[in-house]
Every structure is written in structure tokens, then in C-alpha cells.
């Protein structure tokens, strides 16, 4: 009798410890794990989940930034019955079939940061306006190079949706008469891996002895290129610019390898993505043109005809402010 009572009490205690309802699972699928940019986005996602109360975040991604790795993950998330997938895609096309399958099973899918084609998601949340980012990259290059000189791009993976769009926008700006002196000599890919990005930067030094700047529209690439410039004693000869995290770039600004770089707040991006997908989970968003989606403390986003919405303008960092923001992301 005694032991039976003990068991009942234990079962009761366990039942009381469980939440009154099971939180819905949202999977945040990033390009690859170990990238500080996505760690910051994850931080924001957790903040949103805490506010929303009825969801929990599964943070996942492949070891290397490949579409194949993400497809495997998406398939296993379908099997796990997650309620939503928020993905930064390694390829605009390759993920579409598995994401479509997820949506057919009732899973709400949105992309953020690096998008997938319209048919593979309900919306794409861009960190900023793509044309603005392209212009920013061209302007920052001109600031360190001057009116004439050779520049090269060190990108992430060759299939990355976001980097390819930004490079395309940057090329449009460089094609304008006022930029005719800036010569884009090469675009190389470090695959968002530090060691490969570092080697690609070294390769550029060798192939282009007159190179004046490396523009890296990736937080992994810009940090690796700046380190290569420092290690090979090319500070003052080759400047590095692009999109970076203040926490990873402060030392490189100090060394002089980097004068300025830009980025948006990755914490806010992750936070906003969870709010956006939550609206689809609750049925208040459907993905139609003109729909206004609440992004919690960040504000609102309006969907365009492609189901895309953009957040804030990229912010520029240099010696005057990098230390302050390095403490945040
Ligand atoms: C890297 C990733 C990410 C991109 C940033 C700027 O961390 O490629 O997708 O948005 O750089």
C-alpha cells in the first residue's frame, strides 16, 4: 500500500512539473553551424519564443553550408512533426522539393536571410533592401580604394541566394560611369568556412599583385580575409570590407586591415523571423501581397508580390563605434 501511494505521489509531482500544454516546435535551420551570425540569430529566436510562450525553438543546420545537408535535415524535421521551419537556404532551388513536401504536411515554412524560390516557402524575410546592400558594398570599396583600382569579391558558397543577389546588385552599381575606375577582377568562394576563405584570400594576393581591396559579403569571409591581410603584412596595401560582425571585426579595424564594414542586427533578424512564422502558424498571415506582418518589438513587415519583406538599412561600423557594438553581436 505504502509503495503504491509513493508511486502515485511521484506521478502527480511529474504531472505538475509538465507545462499545461505542449509548445509547438519551430525549427530554425541555418546555412551551417558554428557561424557567429547564426548564433546571434538563434539568440533572437529564443527571445521571440520566450515572448510568444506557445513555441519552442529547435536550432539546427549542417556542419558545412551545403543544400544536401539541409535537405537531410528538412526531411528529418518532417518526420519529427515540427509545426514550422524557418530556413536560411544554401541554394534557392535545391531545397524547394523537400520544403514543398513539408508544406503539404501542414508545416509552415518561411525563409530568412538567404531565401528559397517562392514555391518553396510562404515568405522570405530579407535583412535589408538588396539594392541598398549592393550599393553599400560598392561605396565602401570606393572609400578605401579611391576612384581607380582592382577589387575582388570573396563570397560564401557559389549557390548562396543572398550573396549572389548582393553581388549582382553591387555589379550594377559598379557598371555606372562614376565607378568606371573600379575593376572587379575576380569573385571567389570561401564557402563560409574560415580556412577555405583564408586560402582563397591568399590566392587573390598571388593572382592579383595590384589588388587594392577584398569585398566579402559574408561575416565568415570578411574575418578570414582580414586575418590573411594581417598575417601576410599587407595592411595598408590591401583593404578588406564587406559584411561583418562587430564582435569578430573589432581587432581587424584596430589592425588597420579594415576601415569600415556594414551589417544589420542578426539578433533582430532571428527574432523577427520567429514572429513572422508565428503569424502563419496562427493563421493571421497567409502570404498575400500587401499583407502586414507583426515582428514584435522590431515593428512590422509588408509582403511584396514575391512574398518578400525587408527589414532595416545596413549599418556601417568603423573605429568610432565598432567596440561598442562588439559587446552585442
Ligand atoms: C554569413 C552568412 C549569412 C550572411 C552573413 C552576412 O554569416 O553567409 O548568410 O547573411 O554572412
From TrEMBL:
The keyword Iron-sulfur is assigned to this record: no
Chain ranges passing through the membrane: none
Main location: periplasm
Annotated signal sequence range: 1-22
Keyword terms of this UniProt record: Signal
Domain of life: Bacteria
Record's subcellular location: Periplasm
Domain Periplasmic binding protein: 26-284
UniProt xrefs under InterPro entries: Bact_Solute-Bind_Prot2, Peripla_BP_I, RhaS, SBP_2_dom
Similarity comment: Belongs to the bacterial solute-binding protein 2 family.
Name by which UniProt lists this protein: Rhamnose ABC transporter substrate-binding protein
Organism of this sequence: Hydrogenophaga luteola
Originating gene: rhaS
Amino acid at each position: 500500500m505504502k509503495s503504491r501511494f509513493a508511486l502515485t505521489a511521484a506521478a502527480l509531482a511529474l504531472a505538475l512539473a509538465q507545462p499545461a500544454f505542449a509548445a509547438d516546435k519551430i525549427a530554425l535551420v541555418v546555412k551551417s553551424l558554428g557561424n557567429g551570425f547564426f548564433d546571434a540569430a538563434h539568440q533572437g529566436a529564443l527571445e521571440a519564443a520566450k515572448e510568444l510562450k506557445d513555441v519552442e525553438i529547435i536550432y539546427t543546420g549542417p556542419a558545412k553550408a551545403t543544400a544536401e545537408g539541409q535537405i537531410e535535415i528538412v526531411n528529418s524535421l518532417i518526420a519529427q512533426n515540427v509545426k514550422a521551419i524557418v530556413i536560411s537556404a544554401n541554394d534557392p532551388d535545391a531545397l524547394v522539393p523537400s520544403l514543398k513536401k513539408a508544406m503539404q504536411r501542414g508545416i509552415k515554412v518561411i525563409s530568412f536571410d538567404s531565401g528559397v524560390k517562392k514555391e518553396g516557402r510562404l515568405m522570405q524575410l530579407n535583412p535589408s533592401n538588396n539594392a541598398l546592400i549592393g550599393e553599400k558594398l560598392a561605396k565602401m570599396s570606393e572609400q578605401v580604394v579611391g576612384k581607380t583600382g582592382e577589387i575582388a569579391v570573396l563570397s560564401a558558397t557559389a549557390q548562396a541566394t543572398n550573396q549572389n543577389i548582393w553581388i549582382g546588385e553591387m555589379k550594377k552599381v559598379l557598371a555606372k560611369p562614376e565607378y568606371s575606375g573600379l575593376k572587379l577582377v575576380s569573385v571567389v568562394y570561401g564557402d563560409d568556412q574560415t580556412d577555405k576563405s583564408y586560402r582563397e584570400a591568399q590566392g587573390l594576393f598571388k593572382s592579383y599583385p595590384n589588388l587594392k581591396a577584398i569585398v566579402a559579403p559574408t561575416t565568415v569571409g570578411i574575418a578570414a580575409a582580414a586575418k590573411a591581410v594581417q598575417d601576410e603584412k599587407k595592411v595598408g596595401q590591401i583593404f578588406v570590407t564587406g559584411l561583418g560582425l562587430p564582435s569578430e571585426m573589432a581587432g581587424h579595424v584596430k589592425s588597420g586591415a579594415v576601415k569600415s564594414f556594414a551589417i544589420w542586427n542578426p539578433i533582430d533578424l532571428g527574432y523577427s523571423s520567429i514572429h513572422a512564422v508565428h503569424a502563419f502558424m496562427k493563421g493571421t498571415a497567409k502570404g498575400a501581397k500587401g499583407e502586414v506582418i507583426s515582428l514584435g518589438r522590431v515593428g512590422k513587415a509588408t509582403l511584396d508580390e514575391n512574398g518578400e519583406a525587408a527589414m532595416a538599412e545596413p549599418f556601417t561600423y568603423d573605429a568610432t563605434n565598432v567596440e561598442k557594438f562588439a559587446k552585442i553581436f
